[in-house]
Write a structure and sequence with these properties.
alpha/beta, Rossmann fold, 2 domains, six-stranded parallel beta sheet, 6 strands, PGP-like_dom2, Hydrolase
């Protein structure tokens, strides 16, 4: 591989941490609910309507309400739209305090010493994603023009056009590009369509959702990921 492309959320940082912080701040009255399970459910509902938010058919505010109200409903709780809004505001505040997963910092430092170009590809609103990236403090390894956000590109992962756009802008070839991410559907399937290699970060050991698509590599921990990338570059 001659270029590394990293996803942002749940790849460079642990998305559960800001979620937990927001939950304890807004829903401390609910003590018998697994925050991890609630987080997973909220992500499922986000994924269901992501395309609608990208196209403008659903506002981000409505999406945030939809995912939290339905996630709580699945566990037998009812929350109001106002509570969902309060949670989202606190969640956003917590996301701007995130830090790099330690092994990811080691990987970025190591790849940089090997003169491997490093890029970030992420879906989401431009300002929100860039603020999270700023809080991670990765500019010494990933300059601003090495960041590609779906709302700026005009396409979202896993669309092949997104990956093709990135190759053109970075003057890289698909055969030399490696996508590193946690989302099989967005990162691994998208890379597969574009002819990129891929590394699937599968810390929860989920089954592959698309049977005939295979990541080039799969890791079940960030230490495995660090060891793998160091062996490849």
């Amino acid at each position: 591989m001659k270029a590394l492309f990293f996803d942002l959320d749940d790849t460079l940082y642990d998305q559960l941490q800001p979620f937990q912080g927001a939950y304890h701040s807004v829903f401390s009255r609910i003590t018998d609910l697994s925050i991890l399970d609630l987080f997973k459910k909220s992500r499922e509902y986000s994924d269901k309507v992501f395309a609608l938010t990208e196209s403008g058919e659903m506002s981000l505010e409505k999406m945030h309400q939809y995912r939290m109200m339905n996630a709580f409903k699945d566990f037998g709780y009812t929350i109001s739209a106002d509570e969902a809004d309060a949670f989202q505001q606190e969640y956003k505040n917590q996301q701007y305090k995130v830090s790099l997963i330690p092994e990811m910092k080691n990987i970025l430092q190591y790849a940089s010493t090997k003169c491997i170009p490093i890029f970030v590809t992420t879906n989401g609103p431009s300002t929100h994603q860039r603020q999270k990236l700023e809080s991670l403090g990765i500019s010494e390894w990933v300059p601003a023009n090495h960041i590609f956000i779906s709302s700026e590109v005009g396409y979202a992962k896993p669309h092949k056009a997104f990956f093709e756009h990135v190759n053109v802008k970075t003057k890289t070839n698909s055969i030399d590009s490696c996508m590193v991410g946690d989302s099989f559907e967005n990162d691994i399937f998208g890379a597969h369509q574009a002819g990129w290699s891929s590394i699937w970060i599968n810390t929860t050991k989920k089954a592959k959702p698309i049977e005939n698509v295979h990541p080039t590599y799969e890791t079940n921990s960030y230490q495995q990921l660090e060891n793998l990338i160091k062996s490849l570059v």
